[in-house]
């Protein structure tokens, strides 16, 4: 046993010595000699090698050197090019946030809308047209950040941006398929708006006056036709539906920002917005008074274009006296009746369109008489009721445009 133990101990000592020598030689190989002494006695000094840095530090140092060598590039324009660079921020509405509901309650009511001086615009295209025309935004509610990034950056400074759920926008939207963005704007002033240059180049000496138009869809369609025909202005008298109502805006398809719309006017102030020597024509309502005036041969009544139903002159119907007797006494303004395709655009012209429910007012006929205007008849087949007010306005406006272009060419 002693011999075995002694042999084992000797073997362990030998192995430990060998391991120690191996580790010592490995450390020696890793060392960098300071001096090298050759057998001839020559001594060569070695410079210490630089301490190796980690790869990450080496990469950062190299990139730093490259940046220092490259000249500093300053962008030509100091304005931010992206939404993030502009420093814009938005709030996120949490459950129970009533900012959207409180604002919608105000802008969807005409009295509050007129008192607060704010309107509601919905949809990316309508909002973009409003911003291009110079309308001043106040608040934007959106469901996706991409919708805000599509808008001009310079127009969003100072505007409250609130991100809400799409379900909240859908609850307050009047659209069948909401587009996920709603904007609250200050009520535009026609004198401060910047209308498209192409629209201004094609403007004609032709105006439109809306009298007692109550249907939002009809008014929006009429505004769209007025912009397409090149009207210089659209005047809305008291009694008409608000031009900035959401339904009118939706039917107008951006026409509010292409042609000046002047809202809520008294008849006493209407002549102030008309150019000098303007003749005012009223769209005939196919009434008894027009039939009484069309007595000359080759007039509209000879072709059955004038129906025999009672006219919708709401100011007249409040009295009990017969309309024909009043016309014979000269109580009604005497206006010449002519077809819509006869020449009536010799001077700047204004066309009055009455509502389907209340029709023309007495003030509109008096204005037409004082300016030397008349009644314009649109021929329809006998037995057919009067045309829709939006359709009648479109026919008269584009007929006026055709006559003005023919006169310009000749």
From TrEMBL:
CDD domains: SpoU-like_RNMTL1. Keywords: Methyltransferase, rRNA processing, Signal, Transferase. SMART domains: SpoU_sub_bind. One of its GO terms (biological process) is rRNA processing. It comes from the Eukaryota. This is RNA 2-O ribose methyltransferase substrate binding domain-containing protein. Residues 45-85 are annotated as: Disordered. Belongs to the class IV-like SAM-binding methyltransferase superfamily. RNA methyltransferase TrmH family. Residues 1-22 form the signal peptide. InterPro entries: Alpha/beta_knot_MTases, MRM3-like_sub_bind, Ribosomal_eL30-like_sf, rRNA_Methyltransferase, SpoU_MeTrfase, SpoU_subst-bd, tRNA_m1G_MTases_N. SUPFAM superfamilies: alpha/beta knot, L30e-like.
